[in-house]
């Protein structure tokens, strides 16, 4: 039989050092982590047993046991879950979770400085928290798919022993040899264990047994009367079930009755999961039927744009022996999903109306998901989600909904005006925006890359189409006629400038409403200036260009220089003005040195 001494993975050694030497607070969380791991192991076994019925013995009770021995200074936790093979122990206990190792290392140093334990739960390494209280850990485990058991031993010194052993029963037993410090011995006391289970793991769905008695609740929190459950109870259930170290932002509790009945408990985290925007991230809610766990991440229950949500659904309408393949085609599940989606959206709309401050907190963290939801699948979900949109407004620099904007639009205004730009204060200084603000026209500020794409997909709201201030015509009829007259009078000059710039621009026109600015850049067509910038960052889209329009202020002194200059001066000034327009809109210029040289030449005359 195999018996070896192996070295920990480098980042695991770092974590062990952090646990043993750097963190002195929150030691009690080790129990929550070990109980959560045991619960997960039973979940996995229970799911396997649905299709492999021979795994589960008749009348076998799936449970977690806590055992203490004060004389020997031992704390033991046992479960009869799925257990592990030798390969699984090596992979799961010898290394940090694969998907999180890089992110873990990136955050490890900061965790050392701040003592921030959030990193432990975030990266699935809670097992190692036991080293905060233990000087030695022995893990014995047996998988139903292996004839042999496995024994894993470590003192946290950078190595571990692993060997095959004879074990009769499936499951995992972890023995902690506690340190001799008084604060660690406290975890052997009955009152302490009971209080910690109540605090962190009361709603773990399997019995937690200690001294022959169940010490956690028997009634699932999601089936209890809402009036009987405190907010802190919901929070602790969330943290112990979904391995978060912070309370959730808020939760929704649904009890639906009728032809298809279900209970749902949905949480919105306070912070997005570290891998939310990666390909590795898996969305989904836990699925139960008749209080029996079916699967951990049921993607069918939650749309992609709500992928950040955690929670569960429990229904009596599904068969206990359902398989994953059948599950994906189950009409009942699709009905629950659609109903749940409507209820969540409805709750957000109520929150927006009754508790806007809380909705804004949600929006600032997860609003991007809603905007992606509008854009995805060619706008299939836009009508469902459009009322959830919010943007900062020029009216008071506060968030407004599209409905609030439309409700206070002047009768003569036919379009919803917006302007893209990451920095609102800088955006306000752009010529077109400043002109709009001077005329008391309300403008929505789009500060994220996805914003304009979402509005382009939405197309209109309450019959009002969206229009970028850059592309809007805000002049009076008199101003328009004056601009047309000037355009005609300077037609020859405009043609020379257009000929010099060539395909860089689609059009040159005069705009007397640019205030003190000599030039502005706008676009025409479907691709805006901001969309060009965003798309250019995506490989394969570098060729997507906006049809740029160079707008010249005929009231600016530089226009007189254009009219009176020779061909060389006109060309140099045209290029300088074009580059100024690019810079104001956040584009890079092709040749900065040449631009500065020509600018200095013009300034010196």
UniProtKB/TrEMBL annotation:
Residues 534-605 are annotated as: C. One of its GO terms (cellular component) is cytoplasm. It is found in: Cytoplasm. Residues 469-503 form a coiled coil. GO terms for molecular function: ATP binding; ATP hydrolysis activity; ATP-dependent protein folding chaperone; unfolded protein binding. Homodimer. This is Chaperone protein HtpG. It comes from Cetobacterium ceti.
